[in-house]
Records
---
Amino acid sequence: MKNLNNITTIAFDADDTLWINEHLFRITEQRFVDLLSEYVTDKTVIDKLYDAELRNLQHFGYGIKGFILSMIETAIELTNGEVKGCDLQKFIDWGKDQINHPVHLISGVEEVLNSLQGKYKLILITKGDLFDQESKIARSGLASLFNHIEIVSEKNKETYSSILLKYNINPIEFLMIGNSLKSDILPVLNIGGKAIYIPADTTWVHEAVSDSDIADKNYIELSSITKLIPNLEM
Amino acid sequence: MKNLNNITTIAFDADDTLWINEHLFRITEQRFVDLLSEYVTDKTVIDKLYDAELRNLQHFGYGIKGFILSMIETAIELTNGEVKGCDLQKFIDWGKDQINHPVHLISGVEEVLNSLQGKYKLILITKGDLFDQESKIARSGLASLFNHIEIVSEKNKETYSSILLKYNINPIEFLMIGNSLKSDILPVLNIGGKAIYIPADTTWVHEAVSDSDIADKNYIELSSITKLIPNLEM
């Protein structure tokens, strides 16, 4: 890893970097699997749901509303259309539960952000549904700690280049921190920025990358966001 | 209306100002009404669907995904949960049709934007689902004509103030153009900006305002976007 001395801007991913998120999808998924267990095996449900999610990304993008619609499509498919509306209403209600679930910050997040504020320009860059992300940001209580907040539909090289251009940031001064190698780390390295990977307990399989994608890639991996300050001061 | 001589920035709403949108919701709604006509009257379906949309705005925000989920909930309610999955799949498919529908620009839009480009800073400010709006903007072919594009979850005074602050625009130099008195005109007038109202053929009832809300409000109403240039040059 190149040293971090010349960093002026630190950007953070939100879901599963600042607060717990994927875990809530897995809880909803388990309720879905349990409800369909009389028809098919758990593995079939999970596989078919993932197929539907991938198929629907092009229509619905990321986020909980698309997830609810994918659960509904999967249940219809797995029951040959026989599933009744009253069961499908449950999926919508679970989705609403998830949307309204309290935002649980990951341990140490507030202290780390407070400590960095004023020393670096701080940006929050999160991917997903605009309405859902805005609601989580507001409820997190963290919004005022960031200089800029960017909610994007996809995190690729072009997304990061466009944000850096917008705020007139040189990539060599830019550090991205997140839990997804695919969305937070690789595209930032590819445009000449720096990146710190902090794996989450649960990561959606869609965010996985192959070993060859990260071979020779120059990033730091930390076990917790609380290790960030000591690494910046090294 | 105060004169428009000192305007430096012109912002445009997108749905039903630059391209046709609400009409597509009404087509989908009519298919929905027709499918449920064996159970209940058309008026009941429309009223119940609107109730569901309003109830779900707090969970899902604006946009087609929330609309699909509201259709599903309404059909479940109106059939006492008996509606079958195979019928509900139709609503999802109609939603996908609508999402992928070609973007039809309103007549004159390209000419007007081309004529204004370079003379004014141009901003597109649109409310709704991030993924859906980005897709429509990309397919419209208009993105390169705007200096900035802002996709927001709600259009109120705070939204406009925040955008003007971000781009360092004085409200008295700012003109907003749109088809919704509630979202495009009143909040801009309320922060000291100027506004031109161009009614669309079809406007969602949720965007309606009362006569008392617009009494004494100082805005221009035009019958078509093609009338914009002559008004700016007056």
---
Amino acid sequence: MFDVKKEVEGIVEFIRDYYEKNHLKGVVIGISGGKDSGVVAALFSKALGKENVVGVTMPCHTPDSCRDDAKLVAEKYGFELINVDLTAAFDAFKEDFSKIGSVDPANLKNSDINLKPRLRMATNYYVAAYYSALKGGTYLVAGTSNKSELFVGYFTKGGDSTYDIGVLNDFNVEEVIRIGEYLEVPEKVLYKTPNDDLSSMTDEDKLGVKYSEIAAYMNGENVEDKARERIEKLHAGAAHKFHIPVYRRCA
Amino acid sequence: MFDVKKEVEGIVEFIRDYYEKNHLKGVVIGISGGKDSGVVAALFSKALGKENVVGVTMPCHTPDSCRDDAKLVAEKYGFELINVDLTAAFDAFKEDFSKIGSVDPANLKNSDINLKPRLRMATNYYVAAYYSALKGGTYLVAGTSNKSELFVGYFTKGGDSTYDIGVLNDFNVEEVIRIGEYLEVPEKVLYKTPNDDLSSMTDEDKLGVKYSEIAAYMNGENVEDKARERIEKLHAGAAHKFHIPVYRRCA
């Protein structure tokens, strides 16, 4: 049985223990304005105190208004929110790349989609190293992956899947929302339809299956054949993101 | 006993098997001009054929001459070598970041050092997705990590440690050189003193211990106290790069 109070206390203790044992100071969280990063920010603010939390918004060819929901979260919990607009870096990268010769933009669709989360990962770590130097103590990068996304491989290798500490990895989307309700994450953030800001589609459109169906499947409940097949296909197709093949010597 | 012929055959078979089973096409390898990427390029050229190998040089505030050794490798094995100069992207990123306010450059030393391998990782994947679209078959990103570097954690999380397939992970530096000799990697590349191109120090200077000592330690041989202590400290300090702490639910 999912006991939201017990889990929140467990997470807070888990964070505090790890920080104490490893003599760490703060955390950097990329704040998208969606529920996962909102809930992670709420949890770390509770565990470490708002003064040790740095949120980062990282627009990239996105209007300024997209940061409004991130600001709601930062104001609610009182932590510092900085903005690193990656538009110029993204464009400069594409310009650098274009020098390899004649490139058909149609062949760059997947390249571009996944470049953004990788630049955001690099930014989170850049900010964390900067704050570690500035504040004289180690800042970690927090992950915002939840169990549902992980199960179907809905993340970018070297992007949103690269972080130093994860707290939502064992909770499905519905449970993340329950945690968010308990911690009073702003409703606009918590109940927003998730989209990846990469492809202008919602997560569920892109996955071809509903999060509620993924949760039901993971819980061993019955789901429609079509959904089950899709989930199993996604899960199998994601195996390469978890198990990197490595050659082992003969002797 | 290390049997170089047997290991090379083993690696080639390992690569071919994985590619056949997963219906993959090609590989992207970041070519630094050092031995690890040279040996990896030699192995993949042998396993997949030079026509399915793409090498990438990624200078970043580095003179053009730094690409000469990478060109030696590409010419030796006949694969395509493209150049993505990341200087403009790196500078644009720093400019984007500077807008957070007054930043003392002294506090950006570690940020800058690790940004480069992360941009290179992102570039490898950008190139791989592009070639996958261009050639109509999946290109993987090859890792160039060796056992010695891995043991002491000499890599950047989300940088050179993020890849799709690894072939040198189980060989120490000396064995990598033996494999390189067997595959006739150009001597200038194979015997170059390794440095990270990030901090203008050699790897061994930066590590504070010699690769030969790390190999001896890993082989259970005697090493001087000072070296042993340093190796054990590095190894323990690297644990967080391998084991990401993740909260597990109560029930």
